[in-house]
């Protein structure tokens, strides 16, 4: 899957199917006509990328663990052509998303202090050039680009509208620069994950991978280092309902107190665990993910989720860790450990008396990683459909409980929505995003 080339199609049915072709055709025609009104020419190409729903495996991709998402029909389309002297990024809804212009220098920084929706396009632009240089390809000369975006993925809803625009923008830019044919799906999934970090969020890779590598009618087990995806056939007759709580989560704007804070907490948990398991502190500070600590846990506690939970309970205390305590355990200042990591440095500057909840974060990551493979194994088992659905429902319930209680990435509205779904007869319910 990862080694396959990025597909190019000329018939809209190849993407949206016969049942969705008419509606999609109207979208593309309207986008093309509005593009011509603004720029005086029709776009040279369109690129699209879907949003996603994560069935299970929440907040563990950046810890190196596999996840199990699937793509959704809602997507983001980017119309593009070479022209002008700048990057002119417009939207079909200009009142909500005003036109923004940037220079064409791919080395320019993304202004994370003054977030704008067009930062996602600029991040993609930088990502394409960064990737070409990293793989040793001769990068094309920067040129002016005229761009118009239209999307149907609800913003801030947990369905990855941000990755949909980064991925579609990256594909559009690569096509405009005549390098799209040189890229594989795996390459695009990898570099778009890195590119999205320019907006200030420490992305883990799931959202970009499923947006690029999804297949119709199946979920995908996405694994990392290197990125790869395998199909998981869901039980026949299963219906997954995606409900919007209407509570918007602005991930980029709130990252320092939420998303990026969790990434920092997980790494700190990994380093402190490693020290407690006998690794010298001077070596432990180089650990990035909780997955890297697995061999140490196996050596002392044995394999499996129960052994991981036992290690965490015994070696990490339940109280909040403050920065000075962590620094004492690691023998190094946190600012030094995170030198050169701008997003982590911002987290350290704003962390307050709430400190770091290392035990809870580690317990969630290890237990959720186990649920991903349990979910896959249920789908591939010889159990009856009813048995499979009941088992998957229990895994989803356990996932939400962990997300809400241990990882604290839920909210009152989501918890209420999950409760209502279960009362209405859902076999299982959980947050996503």
Summarize the structure.
Helix content is 45%, strand content 12%. It has helices at 13-39, 119-134, 161-176, 185-196, 206-213, 259-276, 281-284, 294-301, 305-315, 323-330, 334-337, 342-350, 358-379, 385-405, 412-423; strands at 45-56, 68-82, 87-91, 100-102, 145-151, 219-223, 228-232.
Description:
With 433 residues, the chain is α+β, with helices and mostly antiparallel strands. The protein has a five-stranded mixed β-sheet with strand order 1-2-5-3-4, sandwiched between helices. α2 crosses α4, α9 packs antiparallel against α13 and α13 runs antiparallel to α14. The chain is globular and about 65 Å long.
Contiguous uncertain segments of 5+ residues: none
Shape: globular
Gyration radius (Cα, Å) is 22 Å
The oligomeric state is single chain
Main β-sheet description: 5 strands, mixed
How would you write the strand order of the largest sheet?
A: 1-2-5-3-4
Per DSSP E runs of 2 or more residues, the count of β-strands stands at 7
Quote the average pLDDT: 94
Q: In angstroms, what separates the terminal alpha carbons?
A: 24 Å
Secondary-structure element string? HEEEEHEHHHEEHHHHHHHHHH
Please give the count of helices.
15
